[in-house]
Specification:
Bound molecules: 3-methyl-2-oxobutanoic acid, zinc ion
Distance between the termini: 42 Å
Number of strands: 16
Largest sheet: 8 strands, parallel, barrel
Shape: globular
Length: 530
Amino acid sequence: MTSNSERIIIFDTTLRDGEQSPGAALNIDEKLAIAKQLARLGVDVIEAGFAFTSPGDFEAVSRIAQTVGTENGPVICSLARAKKDDIKAAAEAIKPAAKSRIHTFLATSDIHLKYKLRKTREEVLSIAEEMVAYAKSFTDDIEFSPEDAGRSDPEFLYQVLERVIAAGATTVNIPDTVGYITPSEFGALIKGIKDNVPNIDKAIISVHGHNDLGLAVANFLEAVKNGARQLECTINGIGERAGNAALEELVMALHVRRQYFNPFLGRAVDSEAGLTNIDTQQIYKTSRLVSNLTGMLVQPNKAIVGTNAFAHESGIHQDGVLKNKLTYEIMDAESIGLTENQIVLGKLSGRNAVRTRLRELGFELSENDLNKAFIRFKEVADKKKEITDWDLEALVNDEIQQAPDLFKLELVQVSCGSNASPTATVTLRNPQGEELTDAAIGTGPVDAVYKAINRVVNVPNKLIEFSVQSVTAGIDAIGEVTIRLKYEDKIYSGRSANTDIIVASAQAYVNALNRLYGALLNKQKQQVTA
Ligand code: KIV
Ligand code: ZN
């Protein structure tokens, strides 16, 4: 990718930094589904993972490189520490992509040098230079990140950047790793880099930042004004701790306020050309997919993609919007793909109609997945007269989400009411294929179901989040249940959608338990082979 002062490069790290959110772990098929949607969204670079960290991560990066890394698709990138083995694994994993990048990093702040790396500045300078040159022997497109740049001595940072660019880095990424910096400081840091790194014209300046003080997006916009041309971000702002800068907020800020930003990119104020390559109409769908598959719910008042982002509650506002939308709206819900929910299908709709509508919604399913989705569609259509686009999406996302199929929920039955003790009976098939039935009493129907499931599965855990959301309005709406549970220091999520929220609750819990159980089995296997 060459230097491009006319457009902002969107580097999506949902599958790497985003997946570092507690409980957001995704399996390979889920990562692939997200990567495909990111390509439809139009991101320029997908950071598909950290290939060296595990065989699963390696395979995910490699499969994404093969499937999504086409000639016209995004650049596929893997993260690597500034170490030979890491870089070699990254290079191997991204090889199948038509356009590939290695992103290597090494900390430059004195705090990290002293306590984490135990290295001198001189040592860091030469490792960074040497490892960038090593990465360059595998591919031309090399990104280097001086980790904790936000707290690094700028003079030392300039030296590191000059050396890595000379060694072949084509992008230098400036991370505010701990979310500490403020917008004007970040702008000044980028300007300082432009003014003081003699060979900076040979690389693109990128920014990466965390949201610990809620400043990541504001920081990035200030960085753009001062010369940053690549933004590293995640869908819904998920990521380590308080998360990363949110892609949808950055893209829509640059889109809605393009007249303000145009001159900073050397354009005429009134230029209508997009500042990014993002197809904004794919934003809402991408947000829903990531939320569904990671189990990380979007807060209702979240900018751009929250359920309240386009809702007007006050009478004065509603009156104004009815008279003219411009009174209280700075952007159309349609611009992020949030169309008026049309009723499209019903009980009599055939397989072809479902396939066609799913295609229109951007889902290219294999025959097998289509068959599964169609069976679910028929089940729901029997209970619910009108199947909307959102219902369809919820059902398909349910099919794409593949927690390991270890325990299978065969039956759930509950009796409850104002004068009864909620009692649940469940039947599950265990990984050995045996059918096991048990029953329990709880404080409510869901509690009873979970206690009964626990008696069968018998894996200790602590339920830390249970949430039900309705996909559409109406008494017959599909309910989406999201579960997060904790075992030792790890969080596992599960999700399910059904018109019966007790069934959805049971399935979501089994999905989360399957992830936990799968992780325990993997750990056991590793211990045996070690
Ligand atoms: O936050 C950070 O510093 C990172 C780097 C690896 C870019 O995620
Ligand atoms: Zn980060």
